[in-house]
Amino acid sequence: MKSVLLSILTMTTLHGAAQDTLQVAAPDTLSTAQPEKKMSWLRRTIRGFSYIDERYVEPQHYNWSVMLQATYNYDYYRLSTIGRGRQSISFAPTPTIKLGPYFGWRWVFLGYTFDLRQVDLSSNSTTFDFSFYSAQIGADIYYRRTGSNYKVRNVDLGHGIDTHALEDVPFDGINVGITGVTAYYIFNHQRFSYPAAFNQSTCQKISCGSWMVGAGYLRNSIDFDHERLQSLVDERMPGQQVKLDSGLMFNSVKYYDVNVSVGYGYNWVFARNWLLGASLSVALAYKNSYSESEDNESHGFNIQNFNIANVYVDGIGRFGIVWNNTRWYAGASAIVRAYNYHNERFAANNIFGKLNVYVGYNFGARSRYKKKR
After folding, report:
1. I want to staple 154 with a disulfide (CB 3.0 to 4.6 A). Which of 43, 90, 170, 253 is the partner?
2. Backbone φ/ψ region at 160: left (φ over 0), alpha (ψ -120 to 50), beta
3. How confident is the model at residue 119 (pLDDT cuts 50, 70, 90)?
């Protein structure tokens, strides 16, 4: 698989399978020193998002950067019925691993990556991730279409039923789509640096944490061929005559949600130039759904008719470890998202994320640091 990041966009294409990724830092990171005189209100507003306390956070010293990064993508989906006679089945594609070089100028990067594993060329999977990190605010935009390269992972079709014959069997009868956007505000933004842990544009000098709040919108769709799954069960488990619960007999489900979140992040400077960062946010999401079951029944509701039963708990975690002496840097970072949905017939749980491992070099000192070196 190939990946190209053009200006502020990374594009990966492999015969119908594509992945786009992007991480953006604040354009300029400034200290809390006296701002420039006669600065326009627009410039003051933009730069205001990047003010930091240099006793706690060291700004970026260089204009240019080269980096080698490997990315591991993971996706897991679980469907289960509700009530007596509960059944559940989990699906996950083979994780993808990509490797390639990146070249950057401040906050614009160009990259080219290769897929290190063989993938199904007909899966048509697409992933795009955009992350913006500044001292004060951040945002995530993501678009995922899983394609059809899932495998059956864990199966429970009832007490005493041996389902080992179904595990790790390819299944192309499920297709999941997720589109979402979230934005968050960091309260202690002058002393706590998200960019230090997740895009190496600053260095955290003293351990510090911060509360944060956010809001977002999510759109999720599940296309499911239950007849194909029943055929797979009959083929792999002959003679047992196992039937799927009616809760799994649906063709598609679509749901939309608006959510608000609260979380806390902490950067631990445990040694010189070393940082261990982590944050966890919990979101309350109000979800509006429409489903088409086997009998063509429709289930929907208007968001104006608020029902507490339609409020779900989702979560997002970020973890990173980095060594950065402002010239060289290396480390790893991970983002994990968890979403939940259920109606009167079945429940769906989705966990997906990515792990980046990287090493990089900064050069071309910015004007304010040339005299110091």
Report:
1. 90
2. left
3. low
Q: What are the φ/ψ torsions at residue 265 (nearest 5 degrees)?
A: -125, 150
* DSSP letter for each residue of 243-292: ---GGG-EEEEEEEEEEEEEEEEEEEEEETTEEEEEEEEEEEEEEEEEEE
Rg from Cα positions in the chain: 23
Distance CA 171, CA 225 (A): 10
pLDDT at 1: 38
How far apart are the C-alpha atoms of 245 and 20, rounded to whole Å? 38
Is the separation of the CB atoms in 331 and 198 below 8 Å? no
Dist CA 179 CA 349 (whole Å): 16
Residues 244 and 233: beta-carbon distance below 8 Å: yes
How many other C-beta atoms can be found within 10 angstroms of the C-beta atom of residue 189? 22
The model's pTM is 0.80
Q: Which among 114, 124, 71 has a CA at the least distance from the CA of 93?
A: 124
345 torsion bin: left (phi>0), alpha (psi -120 to 50), beta (else) = alpha
Other beta carbons within 10 angstroms of residue 285's beta carbon come to 22
Contact between residue 353 and residue 128 where contact means Cβ atoms under 8 Å apart: no
Q: What are the tokens at 246? A: 């009616």
For residue 41 the two structure tokens come to: 């209100």
Helix (H) or strand (E) holding 229: helix 226-236
pLDDT tens across 297-345, in order? Answer: 444 444 445 566 678 899 999 999 999 999 999 999 999 999 988 877 8
Counting every residue, how long is the chain? 373
Q: Provide the pairing of β-strand 170-171 with 150-156.
A: antiparallel
Rounded alpha-carbon distances, angstroms, from residue 12 to 90, 94, 98, 121, 350: 27, 17, 10, 13, 24
CA distance 28 to 10: 21
